[in-house]
Amino acid sequence: MNGPVLFRYATILQKRLAGRALRYVLQKRGAGERPPVYLLRMEPPVGTLVLSLRRGAPMAVLLPEGRSPEGEKSGSAARIESVLAGMSIVEIATPGVERSLTLRWDGGIEMRVDLIPARPALYLAEKGRLSLAVTSAGVETGGALPALPASERADLLEFDPDRLPAETGSEEELRAFLRRSVRSLPPEWTEEALRRAGAGEKVDRERVAAAWKEMVAELGREGPAVLYPGEKAFLAPFPFRSLGEGAAFDDLAEGMIAFWTDVEGREERAALLRDVLPAVTKERKRLHRLGEKLRKELEKAERFPEFRKKGEILSIHFGRIRKGAASVRLPDPYGDEELVIALDPSLSAEENRRRYFRLAKKGERGAPILRERIGETERKLTELSALHAEAESVATAEEAEAFREKARSVLPPEKKAAPWREKARKPKDRRLSIRPKEYTVTGGYTVLVGRDNKENDLLTLRVARPGDLWFHAAQASGSHVVLLRDDVKKAVPKDALLMAAAIAAFHSKAKHASKVPVIYTERRHVRKPRGSPPGLVTCTREKTLFVEPALPELGEKK
To answer: Which end of the chain is least crowded, N or C, by CB within 10 Å?
Structure first.
């Protein structure tokens, strides 16, 4: 939101909101972890004051009744409401032509909203002391109200264009100087001043100064606002000749509503590109790979007549097949030439004969199923390709939501994260790219098993918590096994310990032994020596159980 528009708009907000009390504060639904968009409802009803702290497109806009986005309670919204509960707005103003809006409430409360694209923020203060700050760093309390950034304090109304330095001899030099002098101004303001002055290689500084003063005077007068389209829409407080044609609004408030609608549509489309399109692209790639795999399987399945023929030939000439042979050359009763038939050297003649009949039977039954699956895969690919192309035409928030619903009906449901991930010690460890085997034992305890040495390290050192139990086959290489505990003060039943030990024995090199010693201890007593290879750890305070290698009756959880 640019400074000149906010300067004019603050006057409109003052007229419409002064004297109205805060009713409640919500946060725009669906914002997730993105910077918040707060919705302030006033009493008596006059609409919804939207304070968007989105990086790159922060904004303050008063939406009429019935146009407010859906909201929900959030921690920061509740804290703002608790500070301003029952308070009425006394004054709304900008410090100057800057990208900052100040709302003064009765009771000596001041709310400052910095609408600076690179660092939007909201501050609540009482007598200069900070009650609440919402910034890109999060929500903070206490301390002093920070000053407006120095780059924002060069006020347009205080800037004297008659003092343009003589060394600005070209248009580019002048453009750079003007942008440095009043940074709260959008680049379009400088371009408009240069356009009105007819600037070129030889700059007439007097004409530039006159054009600048003319624009400042227009800013102080009531007039139509203009919304200019483009890759990034721009709202001007009066017509800009340098921008061509745009949508004119007699009332700046209406122009702000149109601007908000445009920004929201772009934001929703951007969210769509961030959230939905990657899922569509991923599913298209998966289906493409699946289609290729199914076509190869179909190609093999359609050879079932050939497999049956080879099985029959092997049956006729059964006595000519030598043990351990990789192939055999036999006369073809269905043709004039001999046929070379590949054999599996590890199988007997009878097993090779049965293998070909089995392949023939499998291919004959599987070919129709594979054709059906290929057709279904191609149909889904066509739908996803059309969906991907349709995303390019999404322009509004409503269209983005409709697209999302359509995508949900086509995409497979999201897989829920395994419950054990929520129990990892650190939030970042919940996203580790590991897939340990998972079992449930007596008492409902979850037992995790590493699949390789690298995963063993991650499971033991990153996922397991200090009070979880760690198991390993004694004097034999094998997987790390962890039994997760929600309550370390509660003793684990003996049956659960024995089952976890049996799992550890089964996932070790000693799995074929009748009895295997398995050690276990709390994870806090397991250490990894510095520089040791993956999977190697040491432990103390271990106990030993002698168990028969086995898995729970229910097997591995899928």
So the answer is: C
